[in-house]
Amino acid sequence: MIEIVFGFIILGLLAAFILYVKESNAEKAKLINALIAKSPEQFRDLNLADKVEPLKPEPQRPSDLVPVDQMTEEEFDEHIKSQL
Least C-beta-crowded within 10 Å: which of 5, 37, 43, 47? Predict the structure, then answer.
């Protein structure tokens, strides 16, 4: 029984330490932004840039469009049937 209590205490301390490190890193990032910024507006912009996640480009899908001139009658019929 006492082992379970000690286990919860250790897990709580570990979670508190992880939270402390995370907050410390956020404060260090703010301090660096404050040192880099030359104006309050630039500091605000740097803080906003840290919060925004970069956009990931969508993978390009192969085009299923084929000019009608390059298709045979059978291919054309298959494409029409697949669209229905």
Answer: 5
- What are the Cα distances from residue 82, in Å, to 28, 38, 63, 78, 79? 57, 60, 15, 6, 5
For the record, the structure tokens of 41 come out as: 């507006």
| Count of C-beta atoms within a 10 Å radius of residue 79 | 14
Indicate the residue type of 58: E
Buried b (16+ CB within 10 A) or exposed e, 10-49: eeeeeeeeeeeeeeeeeeeeeeebeeeeeeeeebeebeee
Provide the whole-model pTM: 0.50
Distance from C-alpha of 18 to C-alpha of 4, rounded to nearest angstrom: 21
Query: Per-residue pLDDT tens for 41-67?
Result: 888 888 888 777 888 888 877 676 778
- Higher model confidence: residue 54 or residue 32? 32
